[in-house]
Amino acid sequence: MRQFDPDLLQTLVAFADAGTLARAADIVGRTPSAVTAQVQRLEAMAGVPLLEAAGRRRVLTPAGERLVGHARRILAANREAWLSVSGVEADGRVGLGITQDFADSDLPAILHEFAGTHPRLRIDLRVGRTVELSADLSARRIDVLAAMRGAVEPDEIAVIRQPMRWLSATGGLVGRSGDEIPLAVLDPPCGFRDAALKALDAARLPYRIAATSPSLSGIMAAVLGGVAVSVRTPRSLVNGIAVAPRKMALPRLPDAEFSIRVRAESGDVAQRLAAVLAQRLQLNT
User: Fold this and answer.
1) Which pLDDT score, from 0 to 100, does residue 250 have?
2) What pTM did the predictor assign?
3) Is the CATH number of domain 88-162+257-283 3.40.190.10?
């Protein structure tokens, strides 16, 4: 009986989540040509086409869609088995620093999975802003960092890219007057704040800072209340908050980049936690 290579399945799932071979290559850390070769190998094993042309794009075939569903279950079972065997005797502590972007969405399920296979491990969790958490990593107060990427770092094990989006309350703005766009932004330094102001300045659109906060929860409260629009990733799309309507004619934004970093002196447990974070966050992109 033929068996599918998990690395090839990972690439197919990355394509399903990213939508293009180029972005899938970023997710799995390979070149686009290597990803294309992996898909071709997977098609040879399956005996049927998994991708097909749709205009200038490539999309999953019906067989590809079915295989993606199986691939997710196979990869989840493989990850669970690996963690169960490697983590059963692990003890001590591991420090994790993570931004609120992930803490409010993906982190609970990841911690549930990891703690279930590492029952004797203590996880010291810090949720905060990138600049503070980066300082914690440098000061050895944490072992693993998941935060916005400022530059290429030698201790990165993965890079996660997500589109930035203008967000507003589904009920619309209640405080807009004239042509000025009211903004809710974090206190500097903040990559999302910088991207929003740069895009508006480049488009020569007038704006005003309508709300500021040192925390993401404060910014989201301002957006939810209709006080202002803000810039985040789709992870912040919760009940009452949606992508800003096209009629606002807001400018295009770049992708946000997040990285998973592991302190060089950290042990195997920190490496395993970082690997799980990277895989789960990339698959949920």
Assistant:
1) 95
2) 0.70
3) yes
